[in-house]
Amino acid sequence: MFDLKEIRLKNNKTQQQMADMLNIGLTTYHQYETSDRDIPYLIAKKIADIFEVNLEDIFLPTRFTLSKNNKNSK
């Protein structure tokens, strides 16, 4: 998983550049980065496309794996 700010910085983008590419205000983008505002799906998809990663790589906290449930454990 990538942190939104981390991936932005690794790609040498400013918050203003991201806001411009997404056609949103700087304050709105900042709120996305600080989790003060939910990111709409279409904006999240655009962000993933800009950084050429999967949505899950940025926006899901962990990868889930299946495991067999042991009936004897509590």
TrEMBL record:
Keywords: DNA-binding. It holds the Pfam family HTH_3. One of its GO terms (molecular function) is DNA binding. CDD domains: HTH_XRE. Residues 4-58 form the HTH cro/C1-type domain. This is Helix-turn-helix domain protein. It comes from Tissierella creatinophila DSM 6911.
